[in-house]
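Review form for a predicted model. The reviewer records the input and the model, then writes brief findings.
Reviewer: anonymous (R2)
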Amino acid sequence: MLKNTILSIVVLFLVNNAFGQSDSAQFYFKKGMDEKTARRYLVASGYFDKSIKFDPKNLQSYIQNGVVDLEMRKIDAAQGNFTKAYSLEPTNPVVVQELTSLYFNNRQFQKAIDLAQKCTSCPDADRIIAMSYYNLEDYGKAIPGLQKALAKKPDDAEAAYTLGRSYLEIEDYKRAIQAYQKAVSLDAAKSVWMYELGLIYYTNNDFPNALKYFKMAELAGYIKSNDFYENIGFAYLNTGDVENGMKNLQTVLSRKPKDKELLTDIAQAMYSSRKYDDALVYYQKLLEINPKDANTLYMAGITFQKKGQKDRGQSMCDEAIKLDPSLAKNRQKKGESFGL
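Model under review:
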C-alpha cells in the first residue's frame, strides 16, 4: 500500500512538473512574441531562449528565435535555430524555406540544392538550385535551371548575368552575349557586367561593340584600372581611332613605362595599322630596355623595310638572326624578310 502511494506521488509530481514546464515555455514564448512585435529583437530572443529551456521541443520557439536572429543579422545563430527546428519537423514549409536560403547565402551550395529540391512551396527553389550549381561549377545543370528561373521571372537581372557567365564558361560566346545584353538592360547600374560584356566582344575581335560597352561601363562608374585603360585603348586602336587609343594607353605607360608586353603590343598595333613611324618609336623604346631583344630588333628591321629603307632594315634583320638563328625561318625563299 505504501509503495503504491509513493508511486502515485511521484507520478503526480512529474505530471505537475511537466505542466509547469509547459506553462513556463508558453509564458516566455508569448513574452518573446510581444517583444518581437515591438521590434525589440534582442529582448525577444532572450525570451525565446527561456521558452526553449523549459521546452526543448517547442518548434515555434526555435522558428521565432531564428526569425529575430535574422532581423539582428545573427546568421549563424539563425541557422542553428532553424536547423534544430528542422530536426523536430523536417516537413515544416517555413523551416525548409528559411534554411534553404541560409544554406545558399552561407555558400553551402550542395546543402541548399538538397533542401531546395524538397521545398515544393519555395517560390525561388529553381533559382537557388540553378545558382548553386553555377557556384559548384556544374554549368550543364546550371544553364537549364537558370533558363527555367528566367522563364518564371524574366526581369531577374542576376539570373540573366549568371546565365551569361555559365555560357562563357563553356565558351558559347553567342549565347553568353545574348544573356549579358539582357542582364545589362535590366540593371543599368552594373558597370562590371558591362565591362565583362565588352571583354567578350573584344576576345571575339568585335572591337566596335567592345568599345561600346567599355564606354557604358565607364559612364556607369566602373573603376578605371590599368587593365581598363589598356583594353579600351586597344579597342580604339583596332577601330582606327589612334588618337583616343594612344591617349588611354599613354595613361598606362606613364604608370608602367617599361612594361615590355604593353610596348610590344602597341608597336604591333601600329605596325598592323601601317603606322610604321609610330611603330618604330615603340620598338626603339623596347631596344633601349634590352638591346639584345632579337624579336624586337627583327620587327624593327621589317618595319624599316616597309618604309622603303630596305638595306637598313635587312641589316637589322641579319643582326637579329645572329642573336636568334630561329628567326631565319621567317625569311622567304628569295631572301625577303617576313614579320613575326
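Findings: Confidence is low (pLDDT under 50) at residues 6-20, 333-338.
Further findings: Residues 2-37 form the longest helix (36 residues).
Recommendation: see findings above.
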